[in-house]
Input
Amino acid sequence: MCSGPLFGKILRFTLPLMLSGVLQLLFNAADIVVVGQYAGKQALAAVGSTSSLINLLINIFIGLSVGACVQVARYYGAKSDRDISETVHTAITLSLICGVFLVFFGFFLSKPLLSLMGTPDDVLDMATLYMRIYFAGMPVIMLYNFGSAVLRAVGDTKRPLYFLMTAGVVNVVLNLFFVIVCKMDVDGVALATVLAQCISAGLILHSLIHTDSSYQLHLKELRIHKTKFLGILRTGLPAGVQGALFAISNVLIQSSINSFGSVVMAGNTAASNIESFVYTAMNSYHHAALSFTSQNMGAKKYDRMGRSLLICLASVTVLGFVAGNLVLLGGNFLVGIYSPDPEVISYGVLRLHALIRVYFICGLMDTMVGSIRGMGFSVMPMIVSTIGACGLRILWIYTIFAAYPTLEILYLSYPVSWIATTLVHMLCYFYVRKKVLPAKAALGE
Output
């Protein structure tokens, strides 16, 4: 990341990452498609109603993996092998601790939290069952996320792709087996997802143990190194809190959607899952900006940091605009994959029309955050995102939406918050760059 033409390197970094993210989404998409086609719209609504709550509960811990990525990348750029090793062992130990905590947290709080969200009675029990089984697999889910963050930090995005391809095939096969052959519904797709995640986590663990590089993992050396743990927390905790706050705003929006009934919930589930594929592809540029900025800052190659960000911003704009419009063209067909019900399809397409054309703005917002975090500032983007995205959406729900309670008005809260937050992040980037870089580098000389 610290030498040679940037565009080609960024492309080689992001393409496997995009495909990895899409494959990971296929875990959830396979669940939704199978239950929608074979178990009915109540089962589809049940699985879909859990996504925002699951994100709320795990985002703080996923944020810590971002902190691990930044720390490993910076030490890798500085060629500090001992620091890399201590950070890797701290990160993997932390992933297992977080995973075990989430098993118990998810099991006992799933039903009360779903009830607080106003989940309809006809889907509440199924949604609770899905969440409890899903959270039983949290140790391996956390292990995969932290392990793949280590590989991303050193520029390896190919092996996580290969591992997810393997696990993705297993997930689809098990989904069909459990639902069609064993006559299970949400419990079958949740179990299939957990078993598939075990495979991807096992492959990540194997690759870290058997590498000859500085990030090799030794199971006997697993422990928390205090200074490395604090370094991960400095970057990762604000990132996790930001993700959790975003999830809170999405939980409130999901609660508002729940008030329209299970058919609208099902349509919203299908459309939001389709949007997730576009978002995940765009989010690879967030990780590129994060990793390229961190490594080049560690190597003190400041001129490459700004050029990396410009390439990422241009690329994410083109990707988001093209992908969004392609999704819109095939909207009816794509939503129909999830459910054959005409009402479900119509509500799904309604959401796509409201959001997907301007989805690229969300990509710009996240890419700016990646560069700012890569320079070591994580609290600032957390505060901006909390106020600009989360706070604005919550304010919108209790004012504009309360006055005009329609789905179109509710969905409008997303692009309004993206635009406002992106503009402020851009101002923050120039402030941070001027603050942390040498004077000549900050001026681009």
